[in-house]
Structures are given as structure tokens and as C-alpha cells.
Design a protein that fits this description.
406 residues, mainly beta, three-stranded mixed beta sheet, endopeptidase fold (from Nostoc punctiforme), globular, disordered N terminus, 4 helices, Methylamine Dehydrogenase, Chain H
Length: 406
């Protein structure tokens, strides 16, 4: 923060500490910037390959495998059907269960031909399937085995699976969009013969099981059976890849979710999507900056702090980006004026910097910066420590008209 803004910033901090409960920040709501009057607070969990889990919005904290001696990296986080718990699954099929997620078994002690890439729970949550990249299926609890591609030579590896609504079958999907159906899962079509711009990363069935959607890493959508096409995120310029598609309750819409929690609604999908678990794999420098900032959570707010003991807001932003080899100005207003390139608030990606100022047309009035995560969530040094918060925690009257992408 610039020295000329010290007094105002101190008064602001005193107001926050006086009005907000411990560990949070508060402020008056405003008219917003560029027509934004409110921002839906998305609820989701982010996990990383080391088993750390971070909760956002109203998603409760149930625990993580961070610090445990993992034999293999975590490849998926799967919430229970009531979202009161989740499983973490590692590439060797090791299972870590939290909240009301029950452990039913794992492949951790089995020599696998290919690594585990995904898992899915049964409709009643009393079992789950694990799927390997060769389409090998491992079933536990009340999850029944209906078949696998383990003995088939695949053109491309399996990347995911989706159970039918009654749990009496499932589809496997390969990265080229090839579909393999078992049990009462019906084949409605595939992209196996189509040249894709980007690989398929996931699928979701319609509520009646008479169709499904496939989603590519660029947000492209392919629909089959009674699954309607309502739009795609393939035109979005976000650098973070899509990770899943989530159907709306009616089935007449869906959200395309990126790995950082950003969700694009289509059809009758509106507001925030259901609480989901996402695996954040560092793809961009911004992803790396976010993961660095996560590692600082709980450290004290120190005026002028550059780490590693503690940080102020702009010190955290700079240290996070320096961890991925990018440098820029030290204080918040100079960061807003010169760091990287401006980016619209509606197009923020993981690692982008967002700012607050007293006058939205005057860069010298900026008094605070934070690091955007995704799903309208930020990590920031504020109050007395580094913490996770929603983008509109102080309202939108003071947020600057654009962020910056270093």
C-alpha cells in the first residue's frame, strides 16, 4: 500500500475489525461496477495432488490429506450425494474419506495395470466405483460390477465415468469422446469419430438417463439422446481448463465448471451450481500463484510484510507471482496501474489480481489487492491473517473496474 494512503487504510482496517467477526471482513454494499450489483457466492471444494482441500463459500471443511505420506498423487475429489462429506482418491486407488463419506475399500494394495483416474458414488452413497485409464472397474460397497474395457485396446485412455440414475449401470468416456456403456446404460452417441479441438474431460447423464452430455477441456459441449444443447464455454478466453459438466435440476440446462471453481451457466441453470469437488492442477502461472497463496493461509497480516512469516495484501500478491517467476510493483496502487494487463471483472482467471479503491477512476486511490481464485472467491491478506473470502465481501462499491493479469 502507498504511504499517502496509510491513514485512510488504517481507518478502513479499524472499521473492519470493529464490525466484522474474527477471521472475516465486512463492509457496506454498493451500486457496483459496470452494472454488477451482486455476485453469487459459489460453494465448492478445491483439492490438489498432495491431498490438500480448501473450502469456499458455504462448503464446510471436513479435512484433507495434506501432510500425509501419500504413495501416489490425488487425482479426484468426489462429494457424497448430500455434500456432507467427500472422498479423495489417489492414482493407486487409495481412498481418503471425510465427513459422512464412508470407506468401503480401495485398490491401494493391488498392483494396477493402469492408474486410477476417476471415481463415482452410487445413488444412495453406500458404495463407489473406481475407474482406471484402461477402463478397468473396481467396485466397493453396493456398487455392482457391470463390465469394463480392461481387456479392450483403446484408441484413447478413459478419463471418467458416470452412473445411470438408478445405479444399475454406467458409462465410461475416453479422452476422444468414445463411450462405453454397461448395465442399463444405453449408448446414444459419441465423438469417437470426430476430430476434437480439445480432449473430452467429463460427462453427465440427464436425470432420466436417456441421454448425456460430454464436455471438452475448452468447455465445448456435445449432447446425445434427450440431452439438449444450451450453449458452451468454448468461446471463453479463460486459461483454466473445464473439468466437469453439472446438469441443472430440471435437466434443461447445465453448468460448465473450470478446475478453479469458475462456473458458466447455460439453459435454465442460474446462480451458483451445486456444491462440487474440483481438482486444481497447475496449468497456468496463475494457478501456481494461487497454490502458493493457499500455502500461506493463516499466516499473520504484517504491514509491509513480504513473507515468509507474514504478509500485507500487496506483499502476498507479489510473493505469489514471484514464486512462478513473475515480478511487478510492490504496492497495491502501482500494481493496479502497471502489473501485467488489465482484465475485465467478468473474465477473471486463477491468479488474477483484483483491487479496491476510494475512486474508481483514480489508480492512486487503490488501497487493497487480492488474488482471484475462481468461482468469485479470493485469497488475501486482510484483517489479522491470510484468508479465503468472497469477491464481494465488502460490497462492490469500492472494487476497481478491472483486475490485472501479471
Amino acid at each position: 500500500m502507498r504511504a499517502s494512503a496509510v491513514l485512510g487504510a488504517l481507518l478502513w482496517a479499524m472499521l473492519i475489525l470493529a464490525l466484522a467477526p474474527s477471521g472475516s471482513a465486512a463492509g457496506a454494499s454498493g451500486t457496483g461496477i459496470e452494472g454488477l450489483t451482486s455476485i453469487p457466492s459459489d460453494n465448492f471444494w478445491l483439492a490438489d495432488a498432495q491431498g490438500a482441500v480448501w473450502d469456499f463459500g458455504n462448503a464446510p471443511s471436513y479435512g484433507s490429506a495434506a501432510g500425509l505420506p501419500l504413495n501416489h498423487p490425488v487425482v479426484a475429489i468426489t462429494p457424497t450425494n448430500d455434500t456432507k462429506g467427500y472422498w479423495l482418491v489417489a492414482s493407486d486407488g487409495g481412498i481418503f474419506s471425510y465427513g459422512d463419506a464412508t470407506f468401503y475399500g480401495s485398490t491401494g494394495a493391488i498392483a494396477l495395470n493402469k492408474p486410477i483416474v476417476s471415481m463415482a458414488s452410487t445413488p444412495d452413497g453406500r458404495g463407489y466405483w473406481l475407474v482406471a485409464s484402461d477402463g478397468g472397474i473396481f467396485n466397493y460397497g453396493d456398487a455392482a460390477f457391470y463390465g469394463s474395457t480392461g481387456a479392450i485396446t483403446l484408441n484413447k485412455p478413459i478419463v471418467g465415468m458416470a452412473p445411470t440414475p438408478d445405479g444399475k449401470g454406467y458409462w465410461l468416456v475416453a479422452s476422444d469422446g468414445g463411450i462405453f456403456s454397461y448395465g442399463d446404460a444405453t449408448f446414444y452417441g459419441s465423438t469417437g469419430a470426430i476430430t476434437l479441438n480439445k480432449p473430452i474431460v467429463g460427462m453427465a447423464p440427464t436425470s432420466d438417463g436417456n441421454g448425456y452430455w460430454l464436455v471438452a477441456s475448452d468447455g465445448g459441449i456435445f449432447n446425445y439422446g434427450d440431452a439438449g444443447f444450451y450453449g458452451s464455454a468454448s468461446g471463453a478466453s479463460s486459461p483454466d481448463p473445464a473439468e466437469r459438466i453439472v446438469a441443472s435440476r430440471s435437466g434443461h440446462g447445465y453448468w460448465v465448471e473450470e478446475q478453479n471453481g469458475t462456473a458458466f451457466p447455460f439453459g435454465d441453470a442460474s446462480g451458483a451450481p451445486p456444491t462440487e469437488g474440483l481438482l486444481l492442477r497447475p496449468v497456468t502461472q496463475g494457478d501456481g500463484a494461487v497454490l502458493f497463496a493457499f500455502a500461506q493461509l493463516g499466516k499473520p497480516y504484517i504491514w509491509g510484510g513480504n513473507g515468509p512469516v507474514g504478509y500485507d495484501c500487496s506483499g502476498l500478491a507479489l510473493a505469489a507471482w514471484e514464486s512462478v517467476g513473475v515480478g511487478f510493483a510492490r504496492v497495491a496502487d502501482d500494481q493496479y496501474h502497471t502489473a501485467g494487463s488489465p482484465v475485465a471483472l467478468t473474465n477473471l482467471a486463477a491468479g488474477d489480481l483484483v483491487f479496491w479503491g476510494y475512486t474508481q477512476t483514480d489508480w492512486t486511490s487503490v488501497y487493497h489487492t487480492a488474488i482471484y481464485v475462481g468461482g468469485n472467491q479470493i485469497v488475501e491478506a486482510t484483517g489479522d491473517h491470510v484468508q479465503l473470502n468472497s469477491l464481494d465481501q465488502w460490497g462492490l462499491s469500492d472494487i476497481m473496474p478491472n483486475g490485472r493479469r501479471p
